[in-house]
Design goal:
By secondary structure, the protein is mostly beta strands. Helices cover about 10% and strands about 35% of the residues.
Length: about 200
Amino acid sequence: MSTHAARLVAPDGCRGLPTPPQRRIRNGAAMPTGPSPHSANGHLDSRRFRQVLGRFATGVVAITAVDPVNGLPCGLAANSFTSVSLDPPLVAFCVAYTSSSWPRVRGAKVITVNVLAEHQQEVCAQMATKGGDKFAGLEWSGSPGGNPVLEGALAWIDCAIEAEHPAGDHMIVVARVIQLDTHSEGGPLLFFRGGYGGFVERL
């Protein structure tokens, strides 16, 4: 999935539908066969890793703040956000070490998680780009913590960074929730198999 904020949402995972694998029988059960998940040197193949993990649907968030150095809004997109604890109220997300946006965001005392709606794919793409003004043309209001709440987002969560844990090529960021609320109505923006989609309710 990709490189900004924990599999940062630039869809470089599995594109298109994979060819169904052949199947074999083991102990009376059908077992999938196909390309080895390992490379020639025995390490897990990174492309295969992304393909398989791409089958786990995730929501998408924009993490925003105000750069304390220049006072301008900054942010990034992520599809690795999760709740962690109710007591104390904690959430977490991951950020790639190569992220150029995270150093600006993490400098703020308060950061804001925007839960993106299904119609905000272009907003997500804009927040996931490197460099430039990520907020150009976007409408937003201020959260109680003073950070951008994107117009149309389903919810916002103001939080403070509690801890950062190195994990491979990413950093796991744990943040304590300060304030939160719903914002707009609609369905969620989902990331699945290298592309974006929505959620269809069945009555």
